[in-house]
Amino acid sequence: MDSRFWHVFQKELTCLICKKYFIDPVTIDCGHSFCRPCLYLCWQETSDLSLCLKCKRVTRKRDYKTDISIKNLAVLARKASLLQFLSSEEHTCVVHKETKKIFCQENKNLLCVLCSDSQEHQGHRHLSVDRAAEEHRETLLKTMECLWKILCENSRNMNMEIIKTRSWEVSVREAIRNVFQKMPLYLQEEEQHHWEILYKEHREIFEQLNESQARMAHKRETLRGMYKELKEMCHKPDVELLQVTTDKCESMLLHMPQPVNPELSAVPITGLIETLRYFQGEFQPTDRILDTLGLLCRSHRCFLAWGVHTFISGRYYWEVDVGNSCNWAVGVCNGFWKEKNTKTFVDERLFPIACVKEDVHYSFFTTSPLLVQYVARPINHIGLFLDYEARTMSFLDVDHSSLIYTIPSCSFSIHLKPIFCCCHL
């Protein structure tokens, strides 16, 4: 082959990041190609935009299919390099004077064809060196794919721990302050008692969250280092690649740090429910609309309902009994959300609190903003307090006269409707 043509051929099959032949190549929107592992590692360091490392053009996505055409050409290029490497005297059988181009998977040795047929290697699995190397390379790539998913999961868990650490105490403090502002003056003395309980819990949970973050950060760097190591293995010349093992990967993948689920105590507030029931008034029965909510429970019996009342000002309190359901959502929605009927509970026009059961754990989450709070037991009797002028929506545990959460600074529209969703799994 002409040397100039071979040089161009090699260049076209070389990753722009690692400067080696492609492994698992992907071609992104702008037309430039990279090794998937190289691209993943570079893009992981940028949280916002995915840019081409060559032309700096923004790409539409981060998940691309393997470019099979380029992959097959890269395999041919490695095979050509291997044949040149095996042509040396070092890889010539001293007995039969033939090139050692067969790999014995049992003994991990290179053999000539005649040696592979000998009685010594009878019953052993033999492959050509290039095929054995590509099979091993594919095995490593599958391990890397699994490793990357775990790395991403660990990163998501770590980000959630950071969010929990930064937001949960502030949000609970604000919620308690908002509720006590609605209470008689003589009950506001209880506020200090709640602060003391909250501070003690905060110190314990904050320490747990920080320790969890540290474990996940260490795990992230370990997994990332392992991923880089496997990438370098894949880039090794075929003969070297056949001598490497990945035993330590398995033990690493078995031990993943789990996120902390902080649980706050349900501290009773004297006279809370009795005071808020002053704003209850007379509520008419709700109009029910039966539907299947694909987002929350695609294949289970669910229903969505909203009340006939429309709120345009003032303070209102009402209660909802969810029975034995552990998966529900209650709150208010802007009139536009009801008319649009998007069936999504992540919407700036919706102000709910939702309860979700996962295994034996129960958690509340809100979407405005997105926050998660864990509880030790299910709550069946929910109180809702809407303060239209203050732009707040509060949720309470009626049976224990305690606050669950208050959504502050709600972007209410002119018309608000009560909403309720229940799912029986």
Automatic annotation (TrEMBL):
Domain RING-type, first and last residues per copy: 15-56
Residues of the B box-type domain: 88-129
Domain B30.2/SPRY: 238-425
Organism: Oryctolagus cuniculus
Protein name: Uncharacterized protein
Zinc-finger keyword on record: yes
InterPro entries found in the cross-reference section: B30.2/SPRY (IPR001870), B30.2/SPRY_sf (IPR043136), Butyrophylin_SPRY (IPR003879), ConA-like_dom_sf (IPR013320), SPRY_dom (IPR003877), TRIM/RBCC (IPR050143), Znf_B-box (IPR000315), Znf_RING (IPR001841)
Source taxon at top rank: Eukaryota
Key words of the record: Metal-binding, Zinc, Zinc-finger
Keyword Metal-binding: yes
Gene Ontology terms for molecular function: zinc ion binding
